[in-house]
UniProtKB/TrEMBL annotation:
Major localization class: cytoplasm
NCBIfam families: PRK09293.1-1, PRK09293.1-3
Name of the molecule in the record: Fructose-1,6-bisphosphatase
Domain of life: Eukaryota
Pathway participation: Carbohydrate biosynthesis
GO process annotations (BP): fructose 1,6-bisphosphate metabolic process; fructose 6-phosphate metabolic process; fructose metabolic process; gluconeogenesis; sucrose biosynthetic process
PROSITE patterns noted in UniProt: FBPASE (PS00124)
Family the entry assigns: Belongs to the FBPase class 1 family.
UniProt source species: Scleroderma citrinum Foug A
GO MF: fructose 1,6-bisphosphate 1-phosphatase activity; metal ion binding
Reactions this protein catalyses: beta-D-fructose 1,6-bisphosphate + H2O = beta-D-fructose 6-phosphate + phosphate
Amino acid sequence: AHEELPSTDLITLTRHVLHDQLRLGADETGDLTLLLTAIQVTSKFIATNVRRARLINLVGIAGETNVQGEEQKKLDVLSNDIMVNALRASGRTAVLVSEELENAIIIEERYRGKYCVVFDPLDGSSNIDAGVNIGTIFGIYKIRPESKGTLEDVLRPGREMVAAGYTMYGSSANLVLSTGSGVNGYTLDAALGEFILTHPDIKVPARGKIYSFNEGNSMYFYPPVISYLNSIKYPKTGTPYSARYIGSMVADVHRTLLYGGIFGYPDDKKSKSGKLRMLYEGFPMAFLTEQAGGLATTGTKRILDLVPKHIHERCPVFLGSKEDVSDVLKFYEAHNQSGA
Ligand code: P6P
């Protein structure tokens, strides 16, 4: 049989974002559209390298040479270089923050634009050798008025982001994006080299039946987390939740957005601020979750209201279905009221 032919009315990411820009009104200069196109290209490039890595063992450690005798770059280092170069070359960025770089990059005058991009180029990369889904996570701030691009442009609450998204590299490449008016999912059609709209207007179910925590940290969990988990594992009525934990944030969040339930990486006695990074893991995933009708909290504060003091600051994360996250908040409130 013939391969499924695409409909004649293909909604590509570029077309969909352009439509968004037109909807946003004339004042949009197309800069965000161009920036998102640059990000789209990096996702395609990284997807190719991730797929190849599994074939020719590209994932060796940095410093070794491969069969061609080339300097071997770890996939996350390579992905970082791909993103930094493409974002700089787009001429639409002023400040870049990467999980791979100790310091922020301030783009030189010649290439400077009006957006700041914070990103984890290959989150979950420790899972590559096992063939587990990994991903690129990004968040975008518009530069503050009159600013030439400084750290202050990214040390801002997540609620000031204008866009956020991730690309998950698995059996296919899925790009999930919000520019502030809902969440859409696109799947890479490698033959066309285009991301095609496959999940329009993603909405997190009000409640799910899946919880996603690394329970290997249970001995360090604080009481509200232990009480919450017990309430869904040993429910007084109904059936227990299912446990699903992939250990790759993009994969765990993607499932949570589509199926509902809750993903959590709380702060505990071992990780005082949790493990996940505020700027380029917490904020983008919280932005997407809220845009999809869910909630994202630290347990005591809305994640998007946090203000990072430095670019690699960590924060606790509970995100997902509104009702499931509200249940966690009840245990934190009860705990705080008891003052225990
Ligand atoms: P743990 C991957 O290393 C990562 O940064 C996230 O993608 C993932 O959610 C988390 O860490 C997993 O951490 O401690 O459960 O292995």
